[in-house]
Amino acid sequence: MWLKPEEILLKNAFKLWVTEKDNEYFVLQRRRGYGEGGGGLTGLLVGTLDTVLDSTSKVAPYRILHHTPDSQVYWSIACGVTKEEIFQHWDWLQQNIMRTLSVFDSSEDITSFVQGKIRGLIAEEGKTSLVLEDDPEKFREALLRFEKWFELPPEEKLVTYYSCSYWKGKVPCQGWLYLSTNFLCFYSYLLGAEVKLVISWDEMWRLEKTSNVILTESIHVLAHGEDHYFSMLLHLNETFVIMEQLADYSIKRLFDKEAFQRVPALSDPLQITKRGLEAHAKSEQFRTFFRLPKEENLLEVHESFLWVPFSHFNTLGKICLSENYLCFASQDGSQCHIIIPMREVKSVNNDSSSRALTVCVRGKRALRFSEVRDYQRLANTIRSRCGISASPQHSASSEVSRSKCRECQSLINHFEDNPEDAVSTEALMTVFHPQDVENLDPKMLKEKMKEQSWNIHFSEYGRGTSMFFTRKTRDLIVRGVPEALRGELWMLFSGAVNDMATHPGYYTELVEQSLGTSTLATDEIERDLHRSLPEHPAFQSDTGISALRRVLTAYAYRNPKIGYCQAMNILTSVLLLYAKEEEAFWLLVAVCERMLPDYFNRRIIGALVDQAVFEDLIRENLPQLVEHMTDLSFFSSVSLSWFLTLFISVLPIESAVNVVDCFFYDGIKAILQLGLAVLDYNMDALISCHDDAEAVTILNKFFDSVTNKDSPLPPTVQQASVGNNDKASHINVDISELIREAYEKYGNIRSEEVGSSRKRNKLYVIQTLEDTTKQNVIRVVSQDVRFNASQLDELYNLFKRQHFLSCYWTMKSPALLHHDPSLAYLEQYQLGFQQFSVLFSLLEPWAFCTTKSTLSLWVFRLIDENQDGLVNFKEFCCALDTLYSGSFTNKLKFLFKLHLPPAPRTGHILVPQSKKDVRGLLPIHLTGTKQCCVICSIFINKRRWNSAKHSIDQGKVDLQAYLKQWQNEILKKEETIKDLPRINQTQFIQFSKTLYNIFHGDPEEELLYRAVAHVTSLLLRMEEVGRRLQEASSPPESAKPASTTAAEESSTEEASTTPESSDTSSSHNSQDAGPDLSETEWSFSFEQVLASLLNEPAIVSFFERPVDIQAKVGQARVAQLKESRTS
User: Fold this and answer.
1) Contact in structure between 115 and 190 (CB atoms under 8 Å)
2) 292-301, long-range: CB within 8 Å, 24+ apart, which pairs?
3) CB neighbours (10 Å) of residue 112?
4) DSSP label at 594?
5) What is the pLDDT of residue 554?
6) Neighbour tally for 186: CB within 10 Å
7) Could you tell me where the Low complexity compositional bias lies (predicted)?
8) Spatial separation of the C-alpha atoms in residues 1034 and 425, rounded to whole Å
9) Residue 331 has pLDDT above 60, yes or no
10) Helix, strand or coil for residue 314?
11) Which end of the chain has fewer CB within 10 Å, C or N?
12) Are 731 and 705 in contact (CB under 8 A)?
């Protein structure tokens, strides 16, 4: 075990310990009296001494010491009871520590690092044991440190933590790695140096295990263009798997919502746990291996032996139990597995003598599992899930119920076979190319031989859902599947047979519901119907076209997130040739939702990921090709159609179906293998080509030369090759030989390796797509703003991060719900008001002293042109551009427009009855002379306040004004200062207050306040004089001109409808000479405000003073996460 480092003087222990191994930094010693030889008399005395001592003080017989060459001090770091235990610690030090110590310059640094690492290992072991015992105390302590060090929002869920070393440059820092739902965090504090790292999972480009000269094995993280390495983890594989799962979860939830399934264990980001992630990963692996529906979860795993009748021996493996399936997979290399649906189980018997249980299934077959540790409980579990018991009576009743189910199923089948039903019940190949039994040509004879081989296989290994899958099954697949059995085997290998069996009548209902619907997907389907295998007779008739339309429309109705994508029509048309219509539908479900995840969506992420996997395999298996063509992106572009259509679009149909056979059995692995075989076959020609066009020609000619010499299809059904006039000059390649060669050369590719490579490359593919989106957005926005590309890049990163910060801790964030990767670039990331308010407060050029949300709300309403409650990046940048780079007029116009109707008000506006009341309306920081200046400019007689009070309180948001503004923006109408409406008294007062707030904290604050007060007083006097002159020359009320504005009329009407305003007006009339003054509001135009402010040099210089946007962005980057915590 590892020990807390303690200082030891070795010179006092020479006679008690014997050195077994040593090197420059470590010494392994054995206690005299133990081990080989016993140590003679000295060993006997030492052993006696150890025995006589108190039992709590006994010394372990082995230990490891740490020392440095220039020091006489030794530190005990490990001890062991057995030689194997201590040697295991020694080997770990040699592999993980020795190479690292060479980078340190001083002995003190070496000793400090070793001590820190050993303490981390001790804490790691203690934490592991506590986790196994479900003791939360240690985890609670780690959670407190996590919250203290990183100051993340309290909603952030810590999943797990590990002791490790983080490489900062060439020097490692020993510390703690914390993995939470949304962040990877590291903290270290050694010798007064603090290292703190916070990386969100959605910012990662790479996550992989690596090794080099210094680090034997480490975890590499690439984020923000920086490489981060974490090493010396006690459980590196476990750590990497958890990191991989968290990164994948974050990517699916935030970027790729179409692939995010609402799994109960992962649906809520606040409830993510290490155990839940592990269970989800195991269930996903279980479903993928056995091709089970996505609703199945792995519940139990038992080791056992299964009696294999065809081999006459017991094979070791594991029983995997889910809600509706009992599965077994061998572990002895025989590649044998079997899937038993619970619906097929008739009885379960157990034998206590050999701890065995026998499962009887339909078809008079029995499977015997022996040496099952908890066989009794497993048998009871299977019985309960199958609805049967050990008693014969219950089994008989169960059989009766099953018989009724079969009768119901037969009725459904009869209904489906009814000629009046629209759904076709025959594969198109049997309709357009029925087999001639009397035809005895060589191809048909070979086809009969294939069928006979499969019938023999069925008799030995079973047929249907409970068939054994073995190496022989794959061998038969490689040779080719008979035409008559192709549909049945596709259903079996893909798992679609289970989907259809558990959803009787589902497809018929979908067809009825989807017929007649008109959507974008149905329009695209109609457009592509006649492009699907147009040379095949089945799709030259209404029968095939109608069946294709029904299947594609039903699937688009079932899964609107995918709807319809190109290449689905080609794949579905081939499925319809060999499977019944309903079977073809369930095959399409299996392909789109399980076997090729994320392929058929707007961004074809799955296909792009598999292209990256294909590139990795090319580098690994075809080094000669890599040396000649260093840029492998060519193969990515060429192979896209291979993956999307399973080679159907490049091979003749009679050859492509053999590829589909292998795909349904081995998944994407078969496509990758065949792709490598194609490149290998054309290696010499590709190496000698001079450009990409020549390489494409070579591959096209090769695909044209691929044939299927065993195909029984007549020439009228076989697909003619495109551009195949000179085909005779090329050597024909048989598809069966090509597939066999692919399995022989590249069959060692494991599905687990492909899955791991998929996860690794998915991060890079997603981030590449996101980077492309960013570049497109910046290119569009840069045409309307004066920020340079670098500044826009920084602003986009902040904007996008703020979007994700609103999504981290909830599933119902408006920004997350509205995020759609298929939308236009500018609309993919948007901010709601709360997120906008946080980001705007970080980037606004002036420091506001009042509540930030007030001005933020006004700005948000102004720039949210379509009034959907969300602001996109372009709208955000245009507002910032005006505030940072706009002219004095533009900045002032922006502030002026903030206060126009329907600008929101923070609350009820009080009527000032005295100077004391006016002070209550002013910013709290205004005191003394500043207050006097403002009071002089704002204090107006009370009747004006009362006339406006009711209209302010009852004001409503005028959506028509925003619609008009939106229409003007569409028409690109240039707004001039004359187009701006006048600002009334209440809005002007608020405008003045905004100016005071902007100037707060400025070195020339006093001068600016006086300037605003002077302008305000001047405008009020001008308006008062102008209004009195107008009243003196205006006709009586009865002859009032029609030119009176609607705003004045509505204001007067509203004021006169309330008793309060009526009473107030009457009191004012009795006190003042002008009887109509209280009924008329004063207002200002933007031109008046602009002209007045231009006369104040202090104000002009303030707004024209440049503000460093780069410094603001840097500050915002640091404070963004903390601000989100407090918001």
Assistant:
1) no
2) 292/322, 292/325, 292/327, 292/339, 292/495, 292/498, 293/495, 293/498, 293/499, 293/502, 294/261, 294/593, 294/594, 295/323, 296/322, 296/323, 296/324, 296/325, 297/322, 297/323, 298/322, 299/323, 300/378, 300/381
3) 15
4) I
5) 94
6) 24
7) 1031-1067
8) 88
9) yes
10) strand
11) N
12) yes
pLDDT digits (tens, 9 = 90+) for 424-458: 677 887 777 776 656 667 778 888 899 999 999 99
Q: How far apart are CA 131 and CA 142, in angstroms?
A: 12
pTM of the shown model: 0.74
Task: Determine how β-strand 325-330 pairs with β-strand 1083-1084.
Answer: unpaired
Mean pLDDT estimate for the chain: 77
Number of H helices, E strands in the chain: 45, 25
Contact status, residue 345 vs residue 359, Cβ threshold 8 Å = yes
Terminal Cα distance for the chain, rounded: 47
621 half-sphere exposure, CB direction, 13 A CA radius:
23
In the prediction, which pLDDT does 1032 show?
65
Closest by CA position to 485, among listed 515, 526, 455: 455
Q: Can the peptide bond before residue 392 be classed as cis, meaning omega within 30 degrees of 0?
A: no
What is the rounded distance in angstroms from the CA atom of residue 304 to the CA atom of residue 355? 10
Structure tokens at 783: 């045409």
Q: What are phi and psi of 998, to 5 degrees?
A: -65, -40
Rounded Cα distance, 17 and 46, in Å: 9
CA distance 664 to 646: 10
**Residue 695 and residue 637: Cα distance in Å, rounded?**
12
Tokens of 1052: 């007067």
Cα-based distances in Å from 695 to 215, 247, 608: 41, 37, 21
CB 651 within 8 A of CB 706: yes
A 10 A CB-CB count for 1044 gives 12
Specify whether the CB–CB gap between 695 and 634 falls below 8 A.
yes
Please state, for a pLDDT cut of 70, what percent of the chain lies above it: 74
Instruction: Work out the burial of residue 656: count CB atoms within 10 Å of its CB; fewer than 13 is exposed, 13-18 middle, 19 or more buried.
Output: buried
Nearest to 841 by CA among 831, 1003, 867: 831
Beta bridge partners of 321: 300, 326
> What value, to the nearest 5°, has the Cα angle with vertex 238 and ends 237 and 244?
85
Q: ∠ CA(106), CA(108), CA(112), 5° rounding?
A: 125
What is the spatial distance between Cα 393 and Cα 395, in angstroms, rounded to a whole number? 5
| Contact assessment for residue 200 and residue 804, using Cβ atoms and an 8 Å cutoff | yes
Amino acid at 579: A
Q: Is 539 exposed, middle or buried (0-12, 13-18, 19+ CB in 10 A)?
A: buried
Query: Token pair 């440049």 is at which residue?
Result: 1106
